[in-house]
Amino acid sequence: MKVSVIVPVYNVEPYLDKCLNTLVNQTLKKIEIIIVNDGSKDNSEKIIEKYLKKYPEKIKYIKKANGGLSSARNEGLKYASGEYIGFVDSDDYVSLNTFNLMYKKAKEKNFDLVVCNLNYVYETKTKMVSAGLDKDLENEDEVKKNIVFLYPAVWNKLYKKEILDSLKFKEGIWYEDVEFNFRVYPRVKSIGYVDKPLIQYVQRESSISKTIDKRLFNYIDNFNGLIRYYQDNNLYNKYYFELEYSYVRYLYATFIKQLSYTNDKELFKEGVKEAIKNVQEHFPNYKKNIYLKKFGLKNIYLKTFNKKTASLLNFKNRRK
After folding, report:
1. In terms of domains, do 166 and 287 share one?
2. Which domain holds residue 105?
3. Within a domain: residue 120?
4. Residue (of 179, 157, 156, 155) closest to 167 by Cα position
5. Please, which of 6, 230, 293, 298 could form a disulfide with 76 given CB 3.0 to 4.6 Å?
6. Is residue 65 part of a domain?
7. Model pLDDT for residues 210-228, shown as the tens digit of each residue
8. Does one domain contain both 233 and 181?
């Protein structure tokens, strides 16, 4: 088998048919689609059974009690037999040549990882988003210098199965993609780039990315766990600047930006306090980071971040 595609399913009845239709009709023939029903309570199972009956040679179907996205992906990994592994969220869909193009790129120079661009699909428009690369990365040093720029999802990537050996998604958390990828990256020696928006990322109002509550603080917990992981595996010094920049960027930019849309002033204050405290504890001299030397609005924001700028961001975004 060339590619295994793992599809976690939980209560996505309105979107599932379109997702599965684009997978069973992939132009790559040697593909297996591993569908993990994570305890859905809607009619998702009926849709899955329809495809299973029609495409039994392509689909592996697994049912399990609800355990969350990471749990479903981990279950799917147990059954993956492909040379490469991809992930597709069941409320999204993909172009019909997605895995054909990504697999061809993977085999071109035996890349450990392949990434592609994506589209944000709104009700009335589509917006193309970059994978964070503009070329192939053919050695470990190039990979190391670019991991801070890569789009953080797992579903716009194709992983060589052997580099995932023994790795699992951390369960019971949000933003598991970022946490997982940062444990994968030290194993990656080369990355192939497909300059096409092959993944169609459907923008749902009910998605995690639009939800604001205390679970957002998983950003902080996840990155503190990554620091320990890099230290325990003798990777910390080698990847210090990449970790430092990513830590600050995710806490001061991604975490605070998402939290800034809340009307809960106390929750926002707590988030800002925790972000600043953790950055000061782990990377007090981050403003000297090599990746912050490049001029740009985001880097200016990161270097000047404080409680006042956070409050202004909260004021601005609460009015939207």
Report:
1. no
2. 3-202
3. yes
4. 179
5. 6
6. yes
7. 568 899 999 999 999 999 9
8. no
